[in-house]
Amino acid sequence: MGETERRDRREAWRFAAGIAVVLVIAGAGLLFALPWLADLNAQHLAPGLGLKSAAIAAFVASFVIFVVFALVAGDGLIGELQFMLLGFFAFFVVLWLLIAWIF
């Protein structure tokens, strides 16, 4: 076993330990936040959003996600514009109805 392999293995263990610590802290934070989240749900989310508010939330979410998709796409952006627009509207409709249904 070479020195670089030992170093890579040690780095992988540190990375895994860091992820485990972050997950434990996030889980503990969620556990402590449950009463606050239940109160928030009972007061503000119980009446629901409705189609108008859900449409606004779905548009913002769709726009942000597709801007990220376009930035990551790189060279294929111009050739794939028609697919991006079709995907945007399909994604918007699905998110709109799901947000209105769930909330």
Descriptive notes:
The structure is a single chain. By secondary structure, the chain is mainly alpha-helical. The chain folds into 2 domains: 1-47; 48-103, no CATH class. The protein has 3 helices and no strands. It has helices at 3-45, 50-73, 81-102. The protein is flat. The N and C termini lie far apart (55 Å). 3% of the residues are buried. The model has no long low-confidence stretch (mean pLDDT 83). The chain crosses the membrane at residues 12-34, 54-74, 81-102.
Secondary structure layout:
Elements: H1 3-45, H2 50-73, H3 81-102
Helix pairs in contact: 2-3
Transmembrane segments: 12-34, 54-74, 81-102
Keywords: Membrane, Transmembrane, Transmembrane helix
Using brief descriptors, characterize the structure shown.
103 residues, single chain, mainly alpha, 2 domains, 86% helix
Task: Report the helical percentage.
Answer: over 70%
What's the total helix number?
A: 3
**Most strands sheet:** none
Which structural class is indicated by helix and strand composition? mainly alpha
How much of the sequence lies in strands comes to: under 5%
Rough outline: flat
Question: In sequence order, what are the helices and strands, one letter per element?
Answer: HHH
Number of strands: 0
**How many structural domains in the coordinates?**
2
Mean pLDDT: 83
- Write down the Rg: 21 Å
Task: Name the poorly predicted regions.
Answer: none
N→C terminal distance: 55 Å
Entry summary:
The chain is mainly α. The protein contains three helices and no strands. Helices cover 86% and strands 0% of the residues.
